[in-house]
Amino acid sequence: MSVEKTNQSWGGRFSEPVDAFVARFTASVDFDKRLYRHDIMGSIAHATMLEQAGVLNTEERDAIIAGLKDIQAEIEAGQFDWRVDLEDVHMNIEARLTDRIGITGKKLHTGRSRNDQVATDIRLWLRDEIDIILGEITRLQQGLLGLAEAEAETVMPGFTHLQTAQPVTFGHHLLAWFEMLSRDYERLVDCRKRTNRMPLGSAALAGTTYPIQREITCHLLGFEAISGNSLDGVSDRDFAIEFCAAASLAMMHLSRFSEELVLWTSAQFRFIDLPDRFCTGSSIMPQKKNPDVPELVRGKSGRVFGALTGLLTLMKGQPLAYNKDNQEDKEPLFDAADTLRDSLRAFADMVPAIKPKREIMREAALRGFSTATDLADYLVRKGLPFRDCHEIVGHAVKYGVDTGKDLAEMSLDELRQFSEQITDDVFAVLTLEGSVNARDHIGGTAPAQVRAAVQRGKELLAGR
Ligand code: ARG
């Protein structure tokens, strides 16, 4: 990156060049150059429209478009000299265009401003990112459905307060993550609609005196609508905040999921194995196999929450319309999108490779009196009020704790000490299978319901 004589396209009213440090301090090219493709796309649409509006002639338009395409090739070949003194991606590309095609290059900026240009570029960029992220969510959800289907009958302890609560099927547990991701998907689809509106034509803040035809650029760029107010168009970044909010929720979900994977792979739980390729070892403790991927995703959630807070703070004090503050929107937004995309990618790759340890999950479910609620429900069916049943089962559990027996391990006589209503049909409800099979309604943990939910999930994904 070279720093040469100071600018530039706005130098006319200045009597001394910008201080070299200030030039670096105010420049954004180091990070906004990644918008180059969308910047060029926007410029090609703008030039096309200017010709149709009679502002450029055909030769000028063609020269501009060919020049922009050559510049894109230069950038992609790594041959573009990004200059900090040219501030940002927009002026770097425009200056290079003029280098290449001469004076006609200077006509490209007719009827627009960097203010509507950058607002357009970020929206185009974010729209693409959202599409990639949606694809990764779907891939992860496919993995969850596959695993849930295979584990529809696998019983594990379900927890509340991280204490054994009731048996659930592992498939059912996995589908809880599927549901959360479905809502994340919906939120991003919704955010995409508001991202996909075109500010181009707002110019600096008030619109432009040229006979621009915004419907043309809107159509060429595939926007769904044209922004209805030029002041709002150049200054608002609520779509970026909305994206970071949706991304934060998705990362929060992935972080919770990570926490479970970390717990489940620990020697204390041993519910699952993660393949070695998603883990690393320790340089000092030879036995270690650390679940780095989920740990990192859990840690990275903080970056995205930070981006959300950063962008809200960035916007809250700004008067209309564009302010240079807005240049600070990019790094948090880029980082949030990169982090979410990479985290989803890692999870989508990793989830189908999770190896459940069915026997260990089952043993864990047999401990901790996980079928105590089933015994209470059984007594309710025998005609007792639920509160009394709760009390009776409480006594039975206390006896179990003292004698080291789970409910299903007690004899009928032992159980009958607590209620005469208990007969030998009780053992059917005290088994793990009896417990999960009994929760047989939409959203319940019964294997049959897991299979039905997997089916609904497959249909949902097929409709995307
Ligand atoms: N680099 C600037 C940004 O990211 C582009 C817009 C600059 N506009 C201006 N009037 N200085 O926001």
UniProtKB/TrEMBL annotation:
PROSITE patterns in alphabetical order: FUMARATE_LYASES
Q: Where is the Fumarate lyase N-terminal domain?
A: 12-306
Where's the Argininosuccinate lyase C-terminal domain? 369-437
Q: State the family it belongs to.
A: In the N-terminal section; belongs to the lyase 1 family. Argininosuccinate lyase subfamily. Belongs to the lyase 1 family. Argininosuccinate lyase subfamily.
Q: Which Pfam families match?
A: ASL_C2 (PF14698), Lyase_1 (PF00206)
Identify the PANTHER family for this entry. Answer: ARGININOSUCCINATE LYASE (PTHR43814)
Per UniProt, subcellular location reads as:
Cytoplasm
- A GO molecular function held by the record: argininosuccinate lyase activity
Q: What is this protein called?
A: Argininosuccinate lyase
User: Pathway involvement?
Assistant: Amino-acid biosynthesis; L-arginine biosynthesis; L-arginine from L-ornithine and carbamoyl phosphate: step 3/3
Q: Does the keyword Transmembrane apply?
A: no
